[in-house]
Amino acid sequence: MMDRSLPDPPKNGDERARRQRARNRAVLLLLLGMVALIYVISIVRMGGG
Amino acid sequence: MPDVVITSGTVGDTAVAPAAAGARVADFVELLKPRVMSLVVFSGFAGMMVAPGELHPVLAAVAILCIAVGAGAAAAINMWYDRDIDAVMHRTRNRPIPAGRVDAQEAVSFGIVLAIGAVSLMALAVNWLAAGLLALTIAFYVFVYTMWLKRRTPQNIVIGGAAGAFPPMIGWAAVTGTIDLAPIVLFLLIFMWTPPHFWALALYRSGDYARAGVPMLPVVAGARATKKQMLAYTVLLAPLALAPWFLGIAGALYAGAAAILGALFILAAVRVWYDSGERAARQMFAFSILYLFLLFTLLIADRAPDLVGGSLT
Description:
heterodimer
């Protein structure tokens, strides 16, 4: 039987950490995308595009 | 009208605490007003398509990306500045800042970083004229429309509408590196389209605007005067929409469709004039979006012979 005296798990903290990780991943993807974009632009511009 | 005093993290007298769990990525996407962005991107793309000359497909895609991000950045800064009035309007109270999902300072920082990034990338990848026009567009929307006109004059969206009219000019400048009469006509087309489009919305949201203290035309001058002006703009817009055909940047297909669409837009305004309720205004608002979308689709179709099997110009 469940011990009802135990405190609830820190759901808010978990959610906060989950959202923080999602934001970090989005920033990482954006930065990698920018690096790739600048690389491709450089190739095109140097090629006279 | 008294200016609204804004302090960090507050809406009027009510503090808006950011959500304890922090913002989701989707909340930051919402700050960019993706639906508005789509029409801006589309008109910018049309400007690129009708412009004479060539642009490498990668650079064209970068130019479109910069226009999209620039528009999103301006929207994020607009949401930061307008968070007090957004909180009291039904249409906007669930936006990320008034709903407490994104911190106001984070939102404005996000907008500024994106604006600088979009303009810089446009300058480096495309050309300085397109970058300058993009910077002007963002500055006009933020400083002239949002901060200066919106809360002060019922002509707010008439003059402020220029910000939404720049994208075809940016697209044209991205390809040609110059500005001439044709992109100015495309600019005027959106400029003249904006008032009837926005006032149709304002007619059935006038209560919202009145509550927020925004002097939209229906709030200040009443529904009758607004409807009269909407009709006047649609009548002026109809012949103006034929100008791309006269200038030779669009063909007979475009001209015929523009004439029919113009007549339908006038008809929508006439229906609004005779309708004492909201129905005709709602329909006109929906049609106005379709009108501009179809007009620019036809412009693109006329200038994309590979896609449609032959230019009609």
